[in-house]
Amino acid sequence: MKITLGRQSILLLGVNGLFALAGALSGTFLNVFLWKSRPDYAMLGWFTISQQLAIGITFWLAGKWVKEHNKMSALRLGTALSGVFYMLVLWTGKSAVDWIWPLGLLLGCALGLFWIAFNVVYFEVTDRENRDLFNGWVGLLGSMTGIVGPWFSGLIISRMADNTGYQLIFTVSLVIYIIAVIFSFFLKKRKVSGTYCWSEPIRQLSTPKSPWRPLSMGLFAQGVREGVFAFLIALLVYLATTQEYKLGQFSLITSAVALVSYWAAGKWFKPHYRSKGMLTGSVLLLLVLLPLLWKVTYGTLLFMGIGSAIAMPLYILPMISAGFDMMGTSGENVEKRVELVVLRELSLMCGRLFGLTVFMITVLNSPSTKVLIWLIIILGAFPLFGWMFMRKLLIKTTARDS
Length: 402
Description:
Layout: H1 7-37, H2 41-68, H3 71-92, H4 100-125, H5 131-159, H6 164-184, H7 200-206, H8 212-241, H9 244-268, H10 274-287, H11 298-327, H12 331-335, H13 337-365, H14 369-380, H15 382-401
């Protein structure tokens, strides 16, 4: 039977694609912009920590609105606030580094509102059969925007004097966020039902045989890597080359590889491959980091980026699909889907904050490049722990599908 996506799924992919494009244009260079104003690892660490705190808290608080009122308004507000964030960065300019916490909290709230609404709507417009296909398309669109956005931004920034290029790119992102808000009005208003249970994440984690316990630990391990890699790798590429264009080129190449790998994963990666695929992906994600121990150059960073782009779909798709599949295993779980999305994000947030805390302790005591590389290797091993926590759950999923 041919697996297809419905009209609402395609519209949701369109909104996600616009959101991803705006983020790819500016987000790749945001930390470089801040670094050029104040070269301080700790400052970037605090900026990222403030975002993660705001994302987690927003997910938990906004869950009530998303479940009991209008989840589409949360998606639109999150998109709009992302535009407001870049408007404020444009307004403050180099002084943005003096407003790290307010700006980080604003961006975190924007991302939290968008992603809680997106994840809930995503669950509602997909099913077990086409969820891997949808995830593959999300990865495909993310890779396409990653090809076009950073390369274009790097080209513009490198050819314009002072911060003029940054100002132009941030303005373009602002316009795209506005278009995404308009585009979101074509999505149908989703039905709401039930009452939001504030303590559901705690209840799931305190239940001895709840499958959400190993899944939460797997998500925690995923977050440990994500929290630091999300900003540090791009910064290392810039520091190794001192050229925004090279960073754009890095993103273009790695995203082009990811486009192919996500397309292949979306087409051929079936549920019964999840456990072996996740193990293979987590091992490869660690191995491609090892050349950095010899030398940190554009070449070794590019090798790591290409290898990660190939391996990431094998690791991340089982993690995403297994979690959302569990939301549909019973009527109770479907009813609690908003709370379970919140639990999923809180698990990721805790992992990211743990990784960022280790990063902050490291840079405040020994901010040398060699130490940072060892930190990257250690944090890069956490996907293996994620697979260890998830393997029994994935095997059960394989047995159920067969």
